Structures are given as structure tokens and as C-alpha cells.
Amino acid sequence: MSPLLMTIAAVSLGVMMLLAAVAVLFMRELLSAIILTGFISLSASVLFLLMDATDVAVTEASIGAVLATLIFLWGRGKIGGEE
Prior knowledge:
The chain is mainly α and 83 residues long. It is 84% helix and 0% strand. The chain has helices at 3-25, 30-50, 54-79.
């Protein structure tokens, strides 16, 4: 991949992650905030993959995007989410 394309992809992913993180702060529904948090982790995983850090990308995808999202959803179910 060319350095220019790599830079454009990394900057655009970073901006999307930043916008999603700010959007989480203003979410009214807990489920939407949980989904956006999972999107941020998945975007970080793709960013690590673009930087050739495959082991970190797999760890972030499995723990950050999947396991943390499932724990948040489980906690939401325990406290009784919005109806």
C-alpha cells in the first residue's frame, strides 16, 4: 500500500473514531452508546491492521470489540435496559 493511501486511511479512521467517541457522550439510548463503543474498538483494530500490527489488531478485535461489547450488553440486561 502506498504511503499516501496509508496516511489517508489512518487519518480518516482516526477522525471517524473521534467523531464516534464524541457521539457516545451525547447518546440518549444505552444500546446505541454500546454499539458505537464497539465500532470504535473495531476501527482501532482496523487501524492496527493497517500499521502491520497483526497481533495487536486481533487482540483488539477479540477483546475490545467483541468481549467488551458483550460485557456491556450483559450489564445492560442486568440493570434492566430502557423499554
